[in-house]
Amino acid sequence: MKIVIAPDSFKESLTALEVAQAIETGFKRIFPEAEYICVPMADGGEGSVQSLIDATQGSQLEVQVTAPLGDTVTGFLGISGDKKTAFIEMAAASGLHLVPPEARNPLKTTSFGTGELIKKALDLGVEKIILGIGGSATNDGGVGMLQALGASFKDHNQRELGFGGEQLAYLAYVELGGLDPRLATVEIEVACDVSNPLCGKLGATAIFGPQKGATAEMLPILDKALAHFAEVVKTHYQLDIAHHAGAGAAGGMGAGLLLLPNVKLKAGVEIILQAVKLAEKLNHADLVITGEGRMDSQSIAGKTPIGVAKLAKQRQQRVIAIVGSLREDYDVVYQHGIDAVFPIIRQVSSLEDTLKQGRENLISTAENIARLMHLSRMA
């Protein structure tokens, strides 16, 4: 029996590789002779770099970069085993977790550090960059990132804009001539897990601003600033970045990236599926196991388990999801390729204790599923 285990990470508890290994441990207690293929997965958010490193026998490199509030933080990027591809998570340099809750303010936060990670990848001589843009603390349209790469954004007095989403309201001139010329020779695939436009009711600010610390008073300021940014870009370069699918991802980072050459915005999970060659590994599998930290109705909007399930169903394979927890609306996943879902929490505990118990809970749940499968075989 061949079993492919392709889960996402359980955020703040276990990496995708640790999740896969725990599931394998539980199943091996009942099916020790089975063939197990562990494929750590992600959808472009936090954990994507580690998943891609694990899948390509790559390595991680630490880099000192500018944090969202302008201080310095140790970020990181991954390099594939063949040294041809760099893996970057925006969150490693510009992530929400890098800003204390009381200091979260998208009027002030910058994506400059993400640009520094891209520049480091260029220094390494890679041919391709896979950039995941989930989990950001910023709402600056990617302008900070572009400034780090040599672009210039000035006000009416020819002064360079400072950091933060509010600064875009003063934008008068966009100059891309100073962009690092090496960008023209590198392919950038952007792993984007949302399709929101830049502005409006479904835009970056309205949908994602509050989780970055935006108050009700900040929201119209930030949205208007992004709209102004898009208008100035359109005036200077006849490029409509406001309505492109995914432009609103990561506080408008999707829109800003469209100003770079050789950039493609794609569904994050699709990029990861291709990079880890999951289709090839699914061949002749008898069972596919996936999972994520929490499953709900949002899981069908480009999250890892559904991407894995869709690929498996092309081969008529059975798909089980083992997850940290469920919300009441999770059952929509049954219409998208998941055959059964099993949450792992065994007892009521604090969130802190539950996260610490992730590995043991996963092993126990995996073993119980395997026992059920064994019983069905005996019937």
How would you sum up this structure in a few lines?
With 379 residues, the chain is α/β, with parallel strands linked by helices. It has 13 helices and 15 strands. Strand 1 (2-5), helix 1 and strand 2 form a beta-alpha-beta unit.
Output the CATH topology of the largest domain: Glycerate kinase, domain 2
The pLDDT mean sits at 92
Estimate the global geometry from the Cα principal axes.
elongated
Instruction: Summarize the biggest pleated sheet.
Output: 6 strands, mixed
Percent strand equals: 15-25%
From the helix content, strand content and strand pairing, which structural class follows?
Answer: alpha/beta
What is the rounded distance between the termini? Answer: 18 Å
Rg, rounded, reads 22 Å
Keywords: Kinase, Transferase
InterPro entries: Glyc_kinase_flavodox-like_fold, Glycerate_kinase, Glycerate_kinase_RE-like, Glycerate_kinase_sf
Family: Belongs to the glycerate kinase type-1 family.
GO biological process, one term: organic acid phosphorylation
How would you describe what is shown here?
This protein has 379 residues and is α/β, with parallel strands linked by helices. It has 2 domains: 2-41 and 285-378, Rossmann fold; 48-270, Glycerate kinase, domain 2 (Alpha-Beta Complex), CATH 3.90.1510.10. The protein contains 13 helices and 15 strands. The chain has helices at residues 16-28, 48-56, 91-94, 112-123, 143-148, 204-208, 218-237, 253-257, 268-275, 278-282, 304-313, 351-356, 358-378, and strands at residues 2-5, 35-38, 59-66, 72-79, 85-89, 128-132, 152-154, 173-175, 187-192, 263-267, 287-290, 294-295, 319-323, 325-326, 340-343. The chain has a 6-stranded mixed beta sheet, with helices on both faces. Strands 2-1-11-13-15 form a 5-stranded parallel beta sheet, with helices on both faces. A two-stranded antiparallel ribbon has the order 7-8. Helix 1 (16-28) links the parallel strand 1 and strand 2 (35-38). Helix 1 (16-28) crosses helix 13 (358-378). It is elongated and about 80 Å long. The model has no long low-confidence stretch (mean pLDDT 92).
